[in-house]
Amino acid sequence: MSATDSRTTGRPVLPSLPAHGQVRRLALTGTAGVVGRCRDHTRQALLDWGWLPTDDPDQQARADDILLLVSELVTNACRHANGPDQLILHATGRQLRIDVLDGVAAPPQRRVPHRPGQPGGHGLHTVALLASRWGTTARSDGPGKSVWIEIDLPAG
């Protein structure tokens, strides 16, 4: 399902996200099954936006990265903030922003030094490696925070 740019090298061109922007929200409670629900919600958005299914390995790898990042953010909210309240996907042209909102104001902390051989403490390091940008923002609708990532899509 990938397009090919015949004007240049014939390399596959990754589709862009909805040009005028689109927001998808998923309200959440508790922690049971929430990681899978968020991955499924995100996967469905990628399907709707024409990112999946694909035969292009670069596009598949980026979609896999997006699903992994959602899993990491939601898992952190489950472990450190009693679970997320909401997942928000905001797609515009060549960028995808993902927000995971929870009710705990304390920002996430990266484990320093990172210890690759030990269990746990890898989530935010993975986020820092795969996301174009990430951070936290205090919620304007009540107590808590949004942990967000932005993913820039490669130019076609």
- Based on CA atoms alone, the radius of gyration comes out at 16 Å
CATH architecture: 2-Layer Sandwich
Tell how many strands the DSSP assignment holds: 7
Number of domains: 1
Helix and strand element order: EEEHHEEHEE
CATH fold field value: Heat Shock Protein 90
Overall spatial form: globular
Which features would summarize this protein structure in a list?
5-stranded antiparallel beta sheet, 156 residues, Heat Shock Protein 90, alpha+beta, 3 helices
Detailed description of the structure:
By secondary structure, this protein is α+β, with helices and mostly antiparallel strands. It has one domain (16-152): Histidine kinase-like ATPase, C-terminal domain (Heat Shock Protein 90). Helices cover 30% and strands 26% of the residues. It has three helices and seven strands; from the N terminus they run βββααββαββ. The protein has helices at residues 34-48, 57-80, 123-130; strands at residues 3-4, 12-13, 22-27, 84-92, 95-102, 133-138, 145-152. The strands form two sheets. Strands 3-4-5-7-6 form a five-stranded antiparallel beta sheet, covered by helices on one side. A hairpin with a 2-residue loop joins β4 (84-92) and β5. The model is unreliable at 1-13 (pLDDT under 50).
Quick overview of this protein structure:
30% of the residues lie in helices and 26% in strands. With 156 residues, the chain is α+β, with helices and mostly antiparallel strands. A hairpin with a 2-residue loop joins strand 4 and strand 5.
